[in-house]
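Worked Example 4.2. Consider the chain below.
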Amino acid sequence: MKTRLCSALLSLAALAGGVCGAPLSTEIARAHKVVEDLVTAKRIPGFSIAVARSGRIVWSEGFGFANVEQGVVVTPLTRFRLGSVSKIVTTAGLARLIEEGKVDLDAPVQRYVPDFPQKQWPITTRELAGHLAGIRHYSEQDFAITLKGGPHYDSVYAALGIFKNDPLLFEPGTKYSYSSYGWNLISAVMEGAVGGRLFVVYAACGFRCAGASQYPRRSGIGDCSVQDVVLSARSGG
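Applying the procedure from the previous section yields the following structure tokens:
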């Protein structure tokens, strides 16, 4: 399975880089076959793919089904959950807050999230963004609770309760440890810096900066609307 995945990634990288020297149609056909084999081998229900070269999309296609039961096929415009891509979008909003002087990367997170418990060492937003803060990642117990259907958190601050009382894994800045929960805390920092749900506006600029013409709309804040659950509760991915 890993061999097929690596083969698919290498084919896509070659297509994006134009390193094969073959006609574009031939490269796309080769990549298409590799991806089809991967879908079959790993029994993937469906996904979409896009490859860009020099800032221009050269191949965009959907594979499989968005809804298996109803036979809804995936197209290049099918929307999927962002997952950890939310970190990238949130980064753009965070950068804007930094430019505007609303967030100090090196200030303790309690400046913006006063209720977050003090730890054995101070934590900064810079350390959180670099996965250097010592905040833990998901645990098996977290997944078990989720699979049982709950709980649902209505705000970023409520969701911090999953991990906020846990000790740090290490002194911030001394080690690297990937943490989606660290990015949940960053979203709380952003909300604290600008006053609650205005965080959505700043996160939305991540879509605009990326040139996205379509994205979820729910919060109703002009043309910057972004579905709260995706970027507030799920900024960590």
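The chain has two domains: 2-73, 85-231. DSSP finds nine helices and three strands in the chain. Compare this with Example 4.1 before moving on.
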